[in-house]
Amino acid sequence: MRKLIVITLLSVIVLFSVSFTKENLRNIYSRPSSAWPKPFIDEGVIWQELGVLPPGPLEKQMDSLKAVIELGKALFFDTRLSGSGKISCATCHQPELNWTDGKVKSIGHEGAVTQRNSPTIQNSWYYNRLFWDGRSRDLQDQAFGPINSETEMHSEMPEVMRKLRRVKGYKELFKKAFGDEEIDPFVMTEAIATFEKTISSRKSRFDEFLEGNKKALNNSEVRGLHLFRTKARCINCHNGPLFSDNQFHNRGFSNGDVGYYKVTHIEEDMGKFKTPSLRDVARTGPWMHDGQFNSLEQIISQYSIAKFPPGTNPLLRTIGLTDREQKDLLAFLKAISAPPLAFSKPVLPE
Fold first, then answer.
1. 152 is catalytic
2. Which of 152, 190, 196, 325 is catalytic?
3. Enclosing domain of residue 241
4. Could you give the angle at the alpha carbon of 34 between the alpha carbons of 33 and 40, nearest 5°?
5. Count of domains in the chain?
6. pLDDT tens, 106-145?
């Protein structure tokens, strides 16, 4: 009888402790982020606390730039920019798929498989450099790349200009946007870049949580938030409001792709790739520069047990999450993901 009482008391204590821990964690993260527990940050890492999604760079200029945005939107969806007349920017960046294409690697000219996975262009205005390997300095520079690529849109800029100049509707759009019917590569790419700067993520439940709705995240998601900042150490690379440090890292699984090295030609940059934003991550698979993961569960499991090869960034190490911790982290990643904004595709000029 005495043994039964002891067991019962111990069970009550354990249950109370677990309940208290859950409640305590929720209370802690219900405070302003400045009062959250100190994250597990490696020495020398420059980081920002996670935060609410900021407004896009053109938030206060949407009216004054309306004509330029309209032109850029038409160009983004126009297959006439490609050599075959079958591929547009939107072929690999579809609004209904959070501006990705849902493929392991994108399909380009005449069915050619490209080298890498197409990342979402949501929040692309945030990055210091574009493409997985950082070869473009800004969105306007980036817009030239796919058009001139043999495996992507397989076109040449002089031919694109000839095509556009034959379209009366484009002359009108260019004049409305820039005050002149003259069509050249620089104003064309400026219009595309301006349109892309309007493409941002929707607010997620995590944003709602930060803004005061403490019911926006359930207990599993709050535990996942805590893991993201502490034991899982995700915040070392995925930090700030956009969940990216805007840096390049070698995560040890480049599969022969030299990455950032092709841009810098610095040996230590071999196999490095840009840290992608994790906003909407649950909706933008397959994942990684080569689309090698088909589920977030695979990625979390990989980082939990992986033995990283030599040359891997020291920020990456085996994190050893339990099964429940992996589920909680996955729950949080889903909580920072939101469906795309409703989007109307343009009627192309003739």
1. yes
2. 152
3. 29-53+202-335
4. 80
5. 2
6. 998 888 899 999 999 999 999 999 999 999 999 999 999 9
